[in-house]
């Protein structure tokens, strides 16, 4: 059975490229283009791993994750962002499992998803 990955990214070209990479590696991928869409897709799709951009219009990635957890969706989360990892407070850091700094490669994203899908939540 394929691992279901919700990928939330507001940059369309990046979203499409990374979706293709994850599909090529055997993941079942659902795209969402902002935090609102991510909440709706997360409830419907029931992902096993969530990859989300941090800074997005309307609702940022971590606010979206809190809403999904409030809805009972507790899955590993990868946050992608150009914000340096050291800028996250310990409280914010506890809301995700892995940090992936932008820019990142297809290989880095696929490896991170594989890591969390396998149950290894160490960043």
Structural class: alpha/beta
User: Mind summarizing the main beta sheet?
Assistant: 5 strands, parallel
CATH topology: Rossmann fold
Estimate the strand proportion: 15-25%
The helix content, as a percent range, equals: 40-55%
| CATH architectural name | 3-Layer(aba) Sandwich
- Output the strand order for the largest sheet: 2-1-3-4-5
In the predicted model, the low-confidence regions spanning at least 5 consecutive residues are none
Number of strands: 5
What value does the Rg take, in angstroms? 13 Å
The average pLDDT value, as a whole number, equals 94
List the domain count as a whole number. 1
End-to-end gap: 25 Å
The backbone outline, from C-alpha atoms, is globular
Number of contiguous helices? 5
CATH homolog superfamily: Response regulator
What is the CATH C-level name? Alpha Beta
SSE ordering: EHEHEHEHEH
Your description of this structure?
With 123 residues, this protein is an alpha/beta fold. The chain has one domain (4-117): Response regulator (Rossmann fold). It is 41% helix and 20% strand. The protein contains five helices and five strands. The chain has helices at residues 12-24, 35-45, 61-70, 90-93, 106-117, and strands at residues 4-8, 28-32, 49-53, 77-81, 98-101. Strand 4, helix 4 and strand 5 (98-101) form a beta-alpha-beta unit. Helix 1 packs across helix 5 and helix 2 (35-45) packs parallel to helix 3 (61-70). The protein is globular, with a radius of gyration of 13 Å.
């Amino acid at each position: 059975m394929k691992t279901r990955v919700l990928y939330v990214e507001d940059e369309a070209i990046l979203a499409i490229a990374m979706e293709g990479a994850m599909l090529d590696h055997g993941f079942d991928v659902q795209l969402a283009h902002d935090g609102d869409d991510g909440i709706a897709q997360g409830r419907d799709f029931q992902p096993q791993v969530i990859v989300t951009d941090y800074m997005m219009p309307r609702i940022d990635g971590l606010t979206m994750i809190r809403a999904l957890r409030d809805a009972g969706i507790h899955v590993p989360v990868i946050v992608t962002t150009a914000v340096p990892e050291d800028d996250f407070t310990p409280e914010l850091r506890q809301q995700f499992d892995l940090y992936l700094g932008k820019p990142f490669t297809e290989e880095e994203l696929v490896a991170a998803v594989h890591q969390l899908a396998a149950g290894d939540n160490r960043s």
